[in-house]
Amino acid sequence: MEMGYCELRNRLQIACVLGAIISLSSPVTYGAKILVVPIDGSHWINMKILIEELKNHGHNITALYSSKAWYIKESPDLYQSITVQLQGGTTKFDDSRGIQHFLDKLLTTLRHGLTPWAFILVQNEMISFLREWHLWAGAFITRIFEDEKLLKQLEETNFDLVLTDPALGIGSMLAHYLKAPLVYNVRWITRGEAHFLFAPSPLSYIPLLGSHLTDKMNFLQRVQNVLQHFLELFISEFFIHPIYNEACRRYLGTDIDIKTVLLQADVWLMRVDFVFEFPRPTMPNIVYIGGFQCKSPKPLPVGLERFVQTSGKYGIIVMSLGSLVNSLPLDITMKIAEAFAQVPQKVIWRHNGKIPPNIANNTLLAKWIPQNDLLGHPKTQAFVAHGGTNGIYEAIYHGVPVVGLPLFYDQFDNLIRLKVRGAAKIVDAATMQSLDLLQALNEVINNASYRVNMQKLSSLHRDQLESPMRRAVFWIEYVARHRGAAHLRSEFYRLPWYTYYCVDVLALLLSVFLIAAMLIVLILKRFCSVVGKKKQKTQ
Amino acid sequence: MEMGYCELRNRLQIACVLGAIISLSSPVTYGAKILVVPIDGSHWINMKILIEELKNHGHNITALYSSKAWYIKESPDLYQSITVQLQGGTTKFDDSRGIQHFLDKLLTTLRHGLTPWAFILVQNEMISFLREWHLWAGAFITRIFEDEKLLKQLEETNFDLVLTDPALGIGSMLAHYLKAPLVYNVRWITRGEAHFLFAPSPLSYIPLLGSHLTDKMNFLQRVQNVLQHFLELFISEFFIHPIYNEACRRYLGTDIDIKTVLLQADVWLMRVDFVFEFPRPTMPNIVYIGGFQCKSPKPLPVGLERFVQTSGKYGIIVMSLGSLVNSLPLDITMKIAEAFAQVPQKVIWRHNGKIPPNIANNTLLAKWIPQNDLLGHPKTQAFVAHGGTNGIYEAIYHGVPVVGLPLFYDQFDNLIRLKVRGAAKIVDAATMQSLDLLQALNEVINNASYRVNMQKLSSLHRDQLESPMRRAVFWIEYVARHRGAAHLRSEFYRLPWYTYYCVDVLALLLSVFLIAAMLIVLILKRFCSVVGKKKQKTQ
Q: Which segments does the entry list as coiled coil (chains A, B) (predicted)?
């Protein structure tokens, strides 16, 4: 105690002020050891962009993924790779064939529109596809947790944090095992849209993803929304979560389930921006980074720029169905080609399948396109897109109105969010005729309101104190710096549902009220009868 | 249409990019016309700090307040003043006498601790004090809306936004009338803590302010929390809101009530930080600016610095009961003086009332102290405070542990938030003996954990991407720039409560379920009886 409190205090304060200065100066250049457990496919695209930025900030990244990964490749200058060898042959998740097969089936089912029967078939398809995916994740988890050497290696590295996409439960379980702080790059969890797990989500104005609803619902739509919520709970409870719960019990502890594990994240970097998503309740440890992958356009390759310039005053249309889908069935692509043939614009179409024979001179097919640079090109008039979030945010960022051809999952819902703001038109890919697409294109390009509305979204989206990417990196570093962010996690996850909703309290209050009411009635009855008897007596 | 879409687009895009650049560069130097409708007293202290910063950013401020305001004075270099002359003599809200009288009554009532009877008396005191305050506001509103010249002047100024503290409903009603975008500097609304109006607030883990509870409640505490919630609703519904609702109907429209008016704010700058407040659900248009008034300490005046230095290795204790309360009753201040006399530290005590005769040599009394500079002084060991949020945030910012002497409203609750984090001790001012305070002081100063915990809160609080003040100014400018922030306001406020909670949907689903169950039972009964008859026949 000889040192004196003041001196001790001074030192602490200096350390603290230094900490604040370090955190305010950008970038924070200290090498955190980060274990990334990514998800393959389109999820990897934005995770990789985040990894690149973390690398730029001097952090050491280790990525853990399947040795047969489809998109994720070794990249020693960006991250160390730990690959996990799965038993058995290739699966449908190792390349595009699985999703292509799924899409073909879907489009065939929906050929006559979304009839009730088609709805049931589609739901069934989706559930079994999802279940297979989570079963694959279950096998992956087993492989990791049965590999003592790997576990030891991970434990000894003593990671500062785990960064994962919790659409599969792998990374969360690993973070729990390693007792490491946990950050999500997230829009989906194992049970559906991520907010629904832990932010209050009144079903009266928050539509489920997949419902095709908006935040303004009539009575029947609300009934649909509630029913779909129960359906989702049912599916996750009986088809998805048991896969993880068994693994949790086996490898993490008998009283641990996947919900508890998922909720242990310190910070949720949510790929959402309220320019796009309907406003809804949120939580203090959700950080919104929607559009973090967007950036200013680079000049186009010379040949492409020349093609774009030939469009003259009409400009160009850009079309892409994203990274997962290789191609649509030929009859549909022919209808698209027919529509494109009739617009005065030039068209650049990212296309991998069979070339439609009726392709016109104004249309350029390419196996890959510099999508961001094209969307940021001043000649671009419209974006024909499937409605994946990566593309949607790029369209918002660059202010390009959209003609949507949604295929599955959240794509219709994503597009609906642009549609209600007057920035997109939606065409049903399964049932459309070429005229539908042509009309939508003409409407979106020639009716100035679409562009004006999209530009308004763009200017709101760009008007932020710091870029979403800067925010993402800050919060990852924050969690590493403070070994977590426990003070931002609410108490609710400790409570059983009847406590959370105060059902027990209301039951007590109701009982007290009823007993009191009964007592009063009894007393009044007794009083009346006594008075009655007295009256009889006096009579 | 000769201009061509591309060119139009180019111009729009340039405008949009310029907008983004302007918003990223700091400060934004364009003069928005801002109408500030402040609240007098301690609320004014932080509103004034915000006004100073807005002035620094080049905005033109007009402040509207009572000509008899207690704290708010004319300040032409900071803001234009519009003063409203209230009819009648001075009221208890024009100086410190009202609150002093209220405090004296409270302390007398609580002299024997918080007995059930004392609780009822205190509640009664609080409600009538609150009601008088809102009646005063009602008179203020009448005065404004009956003054056609004033209204015309306000309308013609065409303000870019209204900035107000909605603890009284004046500013919100005015913004509604002027159809101006609306920003709140807020912790309280007319009905209690502001979150409870429009962010989902599960009573199972979110304690009401005034409940003295934390986010970890047992069953009985939850019962208390629920009952208090109903009490608050009852009070606001029958004693507070009718005052405003009548004014709304008279001046804004027959279908407008105060709740609708309050909810029209575009952005809520909430004087809360989750280092201090328990984590809880929030909304997209809440921006947390807790501690925005904190700043680095300036050097002390020479005489004061000399006194501080005489404290040697023991350091100093700072005491202040905030700006509203002039003094405690003499018997209480004597106990405080007695405790201070027994500590080895020097004490600096902001004190305005009768000087306690037993004041010791180590204690310096002052009518005003540079509180922020003293709390930021390296010699400061502890802060004896009443628990108002301004002081609490300064203590957090500077990492000084607190001994709390809470007096009324949220002060006990504020201190409890520090206490559960091991950064404060609370002493009951009404019932304490000098030994209680002495022990609390010794504990907080000599047990290092209090300082360490407070330093931890401080380092978390200071570790932000931008200062809370920067955030406040950005969002005010954002709302002015975009003429509101409608895209951040959720749909819930349009819904009646039974729709919001899906009571109608659940009633339908339950009915369908019951009817189906009844049908099945009926069919089974019929079936059984038919089978039974057949059996009888065959027998």
A: none
